[in-house]
Amino acid sequence: MHSPGMRPSGMHSSGLWRPLRRRDYVISARPWRAALYLLTSVPLGAATLLTLVLLAVAGSALAVVLVGLPLLLVLALSGIPLASLERRRLRLVDSTPLADPHREPPGTGLAAWLRTRLQERSTWRELGYALLFATVLWPLEALAVGAMLLVCGGLMTTPAVMAAGGDGEAKVLKLWIADSYPEAFAVLAAGVLLLPVLAYPLGALAAGRAVLTRQLLSVPESGADSRLQELDRSRMRLVDAFEAERRRIERDLHDGAQQRLVALSMTLGLARLEGPAEPLGGLLAKAQGEADVALVEIRELIRGIHPQVLTDRGLPAAVEDIADRSPIPVDVRLDVPGRLLEAVESGVYFAISEALANVAKHSGATRASVRGGVAFGRLAVEVEDDGQGGARLAADGGEAGAADGGEAGAADGGAGGSTGTVGGARVGTGLQGVADRLSVLGGSLLLSSPPGGPTVFRLEVPCPPARSRT
Amino acid sequence: MLRVVLAEDSVLLREGLIGLLERFGHHVVAGVGTAGELTAAVLEHRPDIVVTDVRMPPGFSDEGLQAAVELRERLPGLPVLVLSQYVQRAYAEDLLDSCDGTGVGYLLKERIGHVEEFVGALDRVARGDTVVDPEVVRQLIRHRRDPLARLTAREQEVLALMAEGRSNAAVAAALSVGEGTVSKHFGSILTKLDLSVSDDTNRRVLAVLAYLRG
């Protein structure tokens, strides 16, 4: 799957050689991991070769009677499982995971899967990798690792060979003959000393192999995937533009209508002071009352568009503010160091706001809590209530749909949903908007609400620290 | 007569407020539009009271409030009345934390329209009293709803009016009851909340606010 945070393979590869320059390389686990990486290549490569050959031979032979065609199809797709295994095996020598370049098929079933896979460039790259691996890579690796093992093993087993032979002689690497035990043990010592030296070519070989694997099996930078990245970026730009527009509207209302209404109220207040009590006084008081109501309404409207406290004081203060206004008691514990990106703060704020509004309207809860914090670069927040549960991310029907969600049955809407999607169509407009917004930020939204409660609404968003703000 | 420094970035409102304050016999020694100008004007004129908007240029964040709090640190006891389009507990707390919260006021801007009450609040802040908008008090009371659940509805009303900075007589007038009834309610509030406060009205206000802030 595509992930915007994943670096392309090229930038990463130089890091693979770096451990070799470290002073503790020889005594670390790295040489062993490198050896294991190269050694496991050999049986895997041999098995791949065997499989490819069998599939090709059987497929071609049986193609005449059509039974072979599925076999040839399997052959074409055989790079996929191998690549998946190779990406996992790569973790032995490379701590940065390699992302799966394949797309999610649009539908369920074998046909949709096949169609998607056969159209993907990655599938064919992976087949190429399988061919290269089966014919070139593993024999080379077997040769290199085998040579190293033979040299070291040959040297170190000299005394044993001499003891087994019984004639006081042992051939060392078929090159020369050791004819005394001191000499044999000296050869053994040489073999032991050679081990740490060989750790370096071994490590270099594994690193080179890992770089090659990364190049061949990583997400290609061109074609559909770069279009996806561009889509991601443009979605992000849209959200930013949307955010800027909200702030502009808020500013316009604040500087325009709101100030004029205050001035109007002030003028009416002065007029009431100057004028006679009757008959105008009553009308002036009424007019001022209307102005006051309008001011209250405009204030609520602005809070819904973009709350000032969020801009000024950040997420925890703004969530405390929602809690203060909630009709049921809400306990807030948010541990957020400093300020976050504006889009993150705003997305999370409106998500919590929506969740608490749903709790107050439909859950029958007597109290709720908002808990959360930042860990491993992700902000996770849970909104929990003690209501009767059974809430779901309601189906279509706008606000009314969301309102029915409280009573209507099915639990755990979208709890199995993957990143950023909330069970597709089963989302009411309010929560759908929240889910969409979080998904653009690379976040996710989960709802767990078994009948009888409690209801837990959990959101997670990656949160890079904000640039400094005034 | 009070000598006032007024900071408000909307010219419309600034002019209106100057007219209103002069109408009540106060003198606006400087009317400014940014937080920086506010600080300079206060240091130059040493007014009896500062009236300022929260949100001002250049950042249109809470510069006015920050400037007011800083000025109170430099000139301890400088009375400050802060006006805001939105009342937020967080902003009120900044003000109440400066110089023990004496001589501060925090009101919604629209309270200006109720001219006599507004000027009354200005006088009280200039005297060193604490005036907090009913909207903020409502937020504070919601914030502490668990311990406050022990109070009767009437007692909560009395508490809210007290927290806004009103005297016994003013509370009694607002609720159309006798002053004796109000002090009886207040005594029972103190007992229920384990509060001990003196008879001085403003210290009582501060104690109640401190309790509400938890």
Please, could you describe this protein's structure?
The complex is a heterodimer of chains A (470) and B (214). Chain A has 470 residues and is an alpha+beta fold. Chain A folds into three domains: 213 residues, no CATH class; 76 residues; 151 residues, Histidine kinase-like ATPase, C-terminal domain (Heat Shock Protein 90), CATH 3.30.565. In chain A, 62% of the residues lie in helices and 9% in strands. Chain A is built from 15 helices and seven strands. Chain A has a five-stranded mixed beta sheet, with helices on one face. Chain A has a two-stranded antiparallel sheet with strand order 1-2. In chain A, helix 2 runs antiparallel to helix 3 and helix 6 packs antiparallel against helix 8. The longest helix of chain A has 51 residues. The N terminus of chain A is likely disordered. Chain B is α/β, with parallel strands linked by helices and 214 residues long. Chain B has two domains: 130 residues, Response regulator (Rossmann fold, 3-Layer(aba) Sandwich), CATH 3.40.50; 77 residues, Rossmann fold (3-Layer(aba) Sandwich). A six-stranded parallel beta sheet of chain B has the order 2-1-3-4-5-6, with helices on both faces.
Order of helices and strands of chain A: HHHHHHHEEHHHHHEHEEHHEE
| Major β-sheet profile of chain A | 5 strands, mixed
* Biggest β-sheet strands, sense, barrel of chain B: 6 strands, parallel
Assigned CATH architecture of the largest domain in chain B: 3-Layer(aba) Sandwich
Please report the total strand number of chain B as a whole number: 6
Distance between the termini of chain A: 38 Å
Give the spatial strand order of the biggest sheet of chain A. Answer: 3-4-5-7-6
Sum up the overall morphology of chain B in one term: globular
State the CATH class of the largest domain in chain B.
Alpha Beta
Low-confidence stretches of chain A: 1-11, 395-428
Class per helix and strand makeup of chain A: alpha+beta
**What does the radius of gyration of chain A come to?**
34 Å
The CATH homology group name of the largest domain in chain B: Response regulator
Beta-strand portion of chain A reads 5-15%
